[in-house]
Amino acid sequence: MFVPRDLETARAVAFLVTVALTPAVALAQTDPLPSWNDTQPKAAIVEFVEKVSKEGSADFVPEPERIAVFDNDGTLWTEHPMYVQLAFALDRVKAEAANHPEWATTQPFQAVLEGDMKTLADAGEKGLVELIMATHAGMTTDEFQKIVSDWIATARDPRFKRPYTELVYQPMLELLAYLRANGFKTFIVSGGGVELMRPWVEQIYGIPPEQVVGSSINTQFEMRDGIPTLFRLPQVNFIDDKAGKPVGINEHIGRRPIAAFGNSDGDLEMLQWTTLADGEQFGLIVHHTDAEREYAYDRQTEFGRLDKALDAAAVNQWTVVDMKTDWKVIFPSDLK
Amino acid sequence: MFVPRDLETARAVAFLVTVALTPAVALAQTDPLPSWNDTQPKAAIVEFVEKVSKEGSADFVPEPERIAVFDNDGTLWTEHPMYVQLAFALDRVKAEAANHPEWATTQPFQAVLEGDMKTLADAGEKGLVELIMATHAGMTTDEFQKIVSDWIATARDPRFKRPYTELVYQPMLELLAYLRANGFKTFIVSGGGVELMRPWVEQIYGIPPEQVVGSSINTQFEMRDGIPTLFRLPQVNFIDDKAGKPVGINEHIGRRPIAAFGNSDGDLEMLQWTTLADGEQFGLIVHHTDAEREYAYDRQTEFGRLDKALDAAAVNQWTVVDMKTDWKVIFPSDLK
Q1: Is A247's CB within 8 Å of B227's CB?
Q2: Is the confidence at residue B20, as pLDDT, over 60?
Q3: Spatial separation of the C-alpha atoms in residues B236 and B230, rounded to whole Å
């Protein structure tokens, strides 16, 4: 589906029209979250949204302050068996290998080219940063945007054999639309590279590039033959993860969200920043419990680790979504 | 006036309704820019807006891509006799002097307390940074927001004896509204501190905090007695000026604007980045030529210097506003 930038306007207008033309009772019967089972999470979401968006409600929040932030990997789309960003980096190393003969004998590039995941894993974060810098920097922002757009259009998930953009969670797409229809402004706040998300998030999530907060590398403005360019440098600018998420939210959005949605310890501080404040807030954690339809993981794996955040959810009454029991379908393609 | 965050939606809806109910001829007769004289700048603005927003036009630009960026100091409000940010810093030094007895004998603080502008000027950029750090850091983001809100509500411009928020340019307020009514999303891209603008821009300009790009210092997330806080550190994070403006635009907005409005050499690269690209773009420079109603300056003064940008305007066909001849009124209070 293509979702234009003025989706919020369109949805808002459509919603207002619906309200104006539909008897309240009929409206009450329409289900804004059809892919959610009628369990606690769905009820908690609807109760919160009605509470803050109803004029005259004691917990009413003015529309400008209805800011909702969403983690991306593992919250809006699949992050297993590896972050899509890493899949992109590995594909780029293979695609660029011919231009870098030295990679055949240099780690971690050699491991990537030989498919030696063990050695790659042993390279750790240092090796990962090397891969990211070698594949994400050294070109203009326009060039990188084209590389990402071309890749996301052709890359396929190894298990589901489908484009990564089809491995988004249908219940979360409905949640994004439901929030926007109720005057919320929806943002992505991800540890992933912001430039890797922006080329496709608008079409898939209906979230415009300017409402995406993410990790970034430094860029430098240069006039080249009279043409202004932004050149991507192999230097980390900002890591939008863990304690960096509230920092990124404050720097980019400039006001505190009232709803936050995540799935791992990387989202803990974002959930704390959002919910531990005056007024009404909502925090939700997507718990991956469905090995059959997607994946099951948290405490048992280093991947998308969910030790602290799950414990904090109990303490802070954040809603925890059990994917297996709370979601009727996982992906849009599951819709009958 | 209070302008809600959903101003864009409201304006868009109002505009659509107007279009639907008003004969084209009548609509054509309404003037969206009443405070602009019928000179070249106004004609150029209207021609551009109609060109890019008219369905079927060869130069039509989809609404999501109608991004307009505005410098703040000297473009949307008065920057003479000193940047409002500096006025804020000087006032804060005086207000905090009792808590810093050492300032009485330490420069540049002593100069501020003694009103010795000569010594203050001699302290240069190094002294300025010291003043900024001493007055903008060392508290939480919530505390700083309150300090700014209290200050902007009571501070007065020395010449006009009015709140700085009344020294915004009426023609530019009309331009902001006109662009939004035609599907543009308006952003501020200023060299000023982003946290100094966000508390009041929404009410004055109808621009929400999340659409303000500016200079910033580092913040650090901390849980204090179970309460999440962002603490402002005395470290520069980003200077959103000159070649930094395209960098800030790309990092924050993530797509290239099609219209840019500035008034000094600090806006040169932003204007280049916006206008020297494929498709239709618009660049405009506010030239301060009205010593009687506001100020007259550019090449003759180090302040708001306009050497390169004015020359580039001629080369790149950017529109240059001569405040004296092109604007009927300067401030909202001038409206009869």
Answers
A1: no
A2: no
A3: 15
